[in-house]
DNA sequence: GGTATAATTGACTTTTACGTAAAAGAAAGA
DNA sequence: TCTTTCTTTTACGTAAAAGTCAATTATACC
C-alpha cells in the first residue's frame, strides 16, 4: 500500500490532465492532502477519481456524479435521512437501468448491422 | 401508419424543445420534408430521433451519435468500405461494453449502499 | 549553486448542446 | 376580420467541463 500519489502519476494512470483533477477538487469531489502547496493524493482520492471517470463515461454531469459520491459516503444515522438516501439510491438505479436498456438496444442494432455486412461480404466472395 | 408528424407533436412525445430538433437537423442527423417552410417529419425521422436521444442518454456526443447513425444507414457495396464499417461497429461495441461494465459496477455499489441502509434501519427499529 | 523538472494559482478561452428572444409568415378557429 | 397558435429564421447568450497560457515557486539532480 502506497501512502501518496502525485498529481502527474494519477494523470498518467487515468489519462486526464492536471487541470481536470484540480477542477474536480474545486468542485469538491476530491480532497487531496497538501504538503506546502503541493497536492498529495491518497488511495481514497484515487478511488474517487475512478468513480468520477466511470460516471463521466456514462454521461453523468458533475452534479450527478456528486450525488452518487455523496451516496457512497455511507448511510447516515437518522431515520429521515436514511429514507431520503434510499429514495436517491432507487432513483439512480432507475437511471442506470434505463441506460442499460439503451445499451442493449444499441448493441442489438449493431449486431444486425454486422450481420448485414457479413452477408454482403459473402455475396462479394461468391461474386455478385 | 401516419404520413407526417409536426414538430410540436414530436417535442411533446419526446420531451425535447423545437430548438433541439432544429439543431439536430442543422447537424444533419435528421432531414424532415418541407411543405413551404414548415417541417414535416416522417416515421423515419421519428425513429432517428429515438436513436439520437438514446445516444444522448448514454453520454455520446453529437459527433459520436452521428457515427452511430451513419452505421445504421446500411452496409455499403464496396469491399474496403465494408471492412471499414465493420471496424467501426466493433469500436462502438467496445465503447458500449465499457459503459455496460461501468453500469454493473455502479449498480453493485448502490446495492451495497442499500444494504447498509437497511441494516441501519433494522438497528434503529430494535432501538440502538 | 545553477538548471531542468514538476507543481502551483489565476485568468482567459474554447467547445458542446442547446436556450432565449425578436421579427415575421401562415393557418385555424370565433 | 381578428386573434390565437404554430412555425420559421437569425442571432446572440449560456452552462458545463475542461483547455491553455502566464507568472511563480519548489524540488531534484549534477
Task: Give me the secondary-structure category of chain A.
Answer: mainly alpha
Total count of domains of chain A? 2
Q: What is the fold named in CATH at topology level of the largest domain in chain A?
A: Multidrug-efflux Transporter Regulator, Chain: A, Domain 2
Q: How big a fraction of the residues of chain A is strand? A: under 5%
Radius of gyration of chain A: 22 Å
Number of helices of chain A: 5
Q: What multimeric state do the chains show?
A: homodimer
CATH-level-2 architecture of the largest domain in chain A: Orthogonal Bundle
Q: Most extensive chain contact?
A: A-B, 39 and 39 residues
Question: What general outline of chain A do the C-alpha atoms trace?
Answer: flat
User: How many strands, what sense, and barrel or not for the largest sheet of chain A?
Assistant: 2 strands, antiparallel
Number of strands of chain A: 2
What low-confidence regions of chain A span 5 or more consecutive residues with pLDDT below 50?
none
Strands in their spatial order, largest beta sheet of chain A = 1-2
Characterise this structure:
Chain A is mainly alpha-helical and 128 residues long. Chain A has two domains: 1-60, Multidrug-efflux Transporter Regulator, Chain: A, Domain 2 (Orthogonal Bundle), CATH 1.10.1660.10; 74-128. In chain A, 71% of the residues lie in helices and 5% in strands. Chain A has five helices and two strands, in the order ααββααα. A two-stranded antiparallel sheet of chain A has the order 1-2. In chain A, β1 and β2 (38-40) form a beta hairpin. In chain A, α3 crosses α4. The radius of gyration of chain A is 22 Å and the shape is flat. The N and C termini of chain A lie far apart (62 Å). The interface between A and B is large, with 39 and 39 residues. Chain A binds a DNA duplex (30 and 30 nucleotides) through residues 6-8, 16-20, 22-23, 27, 36-39, 56, 61-63.
